Amino acid sequence: STWGGNPSNSYDTTRAGSLGSSSGSAGSVSTNMAMCSLCEETRASCRGPANHNAVALLLPHKALIGFDGGAIGSDIYNDRTGIHCKDITDSAKVLDALKDPKEGYYDPRDPFTTVPRSAVLSHPYVETATMPGTPGSLKGMRIGVIRESMIQAPGVKATEAVIAGAVKEIKGVLGGTLGATLVESTGPRLLDDPAIENMTTSYTTAL
Prior knowledge:
Helix content: 25-40%
Number of strands: 6
Order of helices and strands: HEHEEHHEHEEH
Distance between the termini: 35 Å
Number of helices: 6
Shape: globular
Radius of gyration: 19 Å
């Protein structure tokens, strides 16, 4: 911030706590000034602060939480609401609390909330958030691996370990232990794992 300077991580003040415009949201939760803080993401302004401040984030797609009720965003066609809390259980409780008793997650002020409701659970989200990670618990579920967010630039060593760790966890935990069926996006610069099914339509083609 040009007003007060960039925040630091509350557990290690030698590290930056800012990576995106919702750093104040994540910082307030990380320092126990608030139990929960709603954030606003255009590209990575909720995810970055969550990562840099050791807080949990639920970032639903735009069609789940209405965004046209007075929020200020830079891109109303893209922006969405996120939930910063100390742990994912609290974030899920807040997501459940944001559901209107009558309309559910439909908001008549926001046309994006009229899309198909397949992502809306029939039970509270907190029940899913507190499920134990028992082997096979995700069997029958298909999870997309978006390789566009895992591009390894030639000669850049800083991201190698992060990407390798993510690949190992996705295959070993989500696919191997929990039993989800993985499908991956493909492209000229993207990793194509022969053990993972390719998506039939790419994100770019779909657009």
